[in-house]
Amino acid sequence: MKKSQPEIGLFIPCYVDQFFPQVAIATLELLEKLGCKVSYPLGQTCCGQPLANSGYERDTEGSSRHFLELFKQFDYIVAPSGSCVLHVKEHFPKLSDMEHEQSRVNDRIYELTEFLTDVLKVDSLKGSFPKKVGFHSSCHGLRGLRLASSSEMNVTPFNKAKQLLQNLEGLEWVELSRVDECCGFGGTFSVTEEALSVQMGRDRLQDHQSHQVEIVTGGDMSCLMHLQGIADREGSSLKFMHVAEILNQAIS
Amino acid sequence: MSHPKAASQFLKDQANSLWHDETLWMVREKRDAISKTIPEWEELRNLASQIKDKVLSNLDVYLENFEANAQKNGIKVHWAKDAEEHNQIVLGILQEKNCQAIVKSKSILTEECHLNPYLEKNGVEVVDTDLGERIVQFLQQPPSHIVMPAIHLKKRDISALFHEKLQTEKGNEDPSYLTNAARLHLREKFLGSKVAITGVNFGVAETGEFVVCTNEGNADMGVHLADVHIACMGIEKIIPRRKDLGVFLRLLARSATGQPITNYNSHFRSPAKGKEIHLVLVDNGRSLQLAREKFRNSLKCIRCGACMNTCPIYRRSGGYSYGSTVPGPIGSILSPGLDMKKYSTLPFASTLCGSCSDVCPVKINIHEQLYEWRQEITKHHGEFGKGLSMKLASGIFKSPLAYKISGSTMRKAIKLLPKGLIYNPLNVWGKNRDLPEAPKESFQEWYKKNRG
């Protein structure tokens, strides 16, 4: 039927590679179950976001060049992180000798849920996940990639992750009081403004807890790592799963 | 004081910081609700942003038109290149009129120029007539918010303050009672002032008139009772035509407090018989900001304060944590333009969540400018520690091998070492947060085994 199947390059953020391999595995397996041809180019490093957000974008030429070299030949690049995708698209320094590669990569890179809804055109997925799920909207995915409508704007509401999750059998989507407030991770903000960062995280957790959420999910493990770090320290029973993990588990 | 330090102090009083967060969140919710009753809200934001684009691109021409038209109307126009000149011009007018006591309605510009202490030093009594401003003036504090200057105070604080200053009943916290006491107190001051100072919300180039928006009517009361009106206006407050005002007035109060419109939107065009209007046009760094391509958009600001109400940092750290006249996200992109060194921590007091940009009625890309200020600040003012560790990290990310080694070393280190002994950034991480459990292998290792 198809002339040739598109080649998908899996972009796994460094901290997911090192700390959350199960999220990367779930992303890979999920895409494979949906019939995609996926490969993971070896030799990936950090995309440079922590440096750039700390004010050192100019020092990320090397890592940006390396990234473009690794991914330039793929038809699509997919990552289980809105934040890192946004960084590639918006905060790679302009490389005059790689303009072509840069614009090609920018046109073809997707966060996982938007790849499923916008490219694979998945309306809903069949599967079961009988849990009360609270969704943490990562700010970079939300307001950077517009993976959902932000609560500030007067637009028709949408949420790409919700579209994928809400029809899973038994899954109860919990509406929070503050649907898209920041968790306070913010990369190096989490250590340079430690007190604020932790307070923001506690407040987010409180919102989930007061709505009897069982599992907090989201599209960025960085936010979830921060929230889980606080929840674990405080002995909370909340569990944390990346959207990819829920989808992969539910449809198996 | 750096922002992180000030913020952690504010957070020490947990109950108070929670109350502060919730109070401002309530204002944001009111803003959300009312903005959603306007179907063309997003279009209005676009229009406002485009009108301001036009103004900023032709500011010189508009300013000259504005000046000429204002003069035709009988307004005396003064130009001040900086705060000092502004203050001297105002004092000069007061001395000429032999005036030793003035009333002033809310003006962030005069705060920016530190007019009050300057006038007081020169023997002029200044009374701020906006209720919130009068409260913080009694306390000798600056405003903690540009629209709600005393938002950091509770009813009981005001009650105690008014008991001391206005001899109200001890312990009476009834807002109507307290407001009435302030009203009586201010009435005396209004009646006794020959000169009234106001800010300016909009200057209309085509007509030479200017518009002042207040909820309390205090600007009008002051101006109409005085012989001389001095209006202080930043040069970016221009709009081209009177009809553009409709766009901005629909956005301003809805964004600021969730009201449909400010109670008083007063147009001042020419002085009444026997009276005078002076207009002081102030640059004070605005031309410089206009010349900074990445930051010029910040001059679109109409001072609604919505970015403060929505900012998860501002709500939890309070206005004073910024140490600048304009606090919050917009302050964090304006202040470094005035003094980059002094305000170097402000652009970092953000998670770059972007809520400020989405809430802004004139669509200033605030969070993107915060990012850009970071790039500038590190060039001029690199803190040694951060600079060094970031350079190290850059070396690691460029080389896959170095990254792999450091990654697996880090995972092993985390397994072996007790919490809080890892290395500095992680050490701070671990004060109130656990680290993720280190997996036995990285994804890359798994992939090679299972798909290689």
Distance between the termini of chain B: 54 Å
Number of domains of chain B: 3
Characterize the biggest β-sheet of chain B: 6 strands, parallel
- Helical percentage of chain B: 40-55%
Pfam family, one (chain B): LUD_dom
Keywords (chain B): 4Fe-4S, Electron transport, Iron, Iron-sulfur, Metal-binding, Repeat, Transport
Domain 4Fe-4S ferredoxin-type (chain B): 292-312
InterPro entries (chain B): 4Fe4S_Fe-S-bd, 4Fe4S_Fe_S_CS, FTHF_cligase-like_sf, Helical_ferredxn, LUD_dom, LutB/LldF, LutB_C, NagB/RpiA_transferase-like
What brief labels describe this structure?
heterodimer; A: 252 residues; alpha/beta; Rossmann fold; 2 domains; four-stranded parallel beta sheet; 13 helices; globular; B: 452 residues; Fumarate Reductase Iron-sulfur Protein, Chain B, domain 2; 3 domains; six-stranded parallel beta sheet; four-stranded mixed beta sheet; 22 helices; 10 strands; Helical_ferredxn (chain B); iron-sulfur (chain B)
Tell me what you see in this structure.
The complex is a heterodimer of chains A (252) and B (452). Chain A has 252 residues and is an alpha/beta fold. Chain A is globular. Chain A folds into two domains: 7-119, Rossmann fold, CATH 3.40.50; 132-250, Rossmann fold. In chain A, helix 11 packs across helix 12. In chain A, 48% of the residues lie in helices and 12% in strands. The longest helix of chain B has 22 residues, at 14-35. Helices cover 53% and strands 10% of the residues of chain B. In chain B, a hairpin with a 4-residue loop joins strand 5 and strand 6 (209-214). Mean pLDDT of chain B is 92; it is low at 382-389 and 416-423. Chain B is an alpha/beta fold and 452 residues long. Chain B has three domains: 1-26 and 296-382, Fumarate Reductase Iron-sulfur Protein, Chain B, domain 2 (Orthogonal Bundle), CATH 1.10.1060; 38-284, Rossmann fold (3-Layer(aba) Sandwich), CATH 3.40.50; 395-450, no CATH class. Chain B has 22 helices and ten strands. Classes of the chains: A alpha/beta (252), B alpha/beta (452). At the A-B interface, helix 1, helix 2, helix 3, helix 4 and helix 8 of A face helix 1, helix 2, helix 15, helix 17 and helix 18 of B.
